[in-house]
Design goal:
This protein is α+β, with helices and mostly antiparallel strands. The chain has 5 helices and 9 strands.
Length: 199
Amino acid sequence: FALLGGAAFSGKATIPVGDLKVGDIFSCFPNDTRIMCLRMKGEVVIRVLNAMIKEMPAEAPSFPHCSGGLKFTINLFKNPPQVEDVCVRGEPIGINTEYVVGLETFAGLGKAKYKFIPPNSTTLLDGENAAQLVHWLIAFFLDKQGQKKEKADAEAAAILAKERGLKGGAADVMSPLTSNPDSATTTKNEKTNPAVGGA
């Protein structure tokens, strides 16, 4: 499963009714959010969740948005708030069970309130090779729509180049998308981590 802090979303963009465009995805995720992959025990997962909701009930920029395999309840009557009834794929989380977790590089590298993560986890996909979130999203919709990813590559690269004021071809901005979310997507200067099935 994966956890994404609320700050990764723009919060200022809404997607209009109709066809989803590559630019719509960039408007929702304007930051260069990258996802690391780590193996950690259930007790560490719970610590991560509690860290992400620590600011509640005030505005919590790190509020966890999780994939469908993870569910939990937030108890706001405790100070600080704590997660309860954490389940993974319908089963109560195992405190000593190891899970593969996707996290933003900010958390995965142990910055700020996440300093406890690196010493209590095993890195499978490190920060240098972390996959760009927008690549995964675009690949997901391409697979769902059955479109050719080469066309979206060019569109995404052109939009990103325009927004960042970069010069050069598409290859200088964005690497080809992957249609397999389990494969690492990297820029052309990065190497794919063989531990996660890359070349």
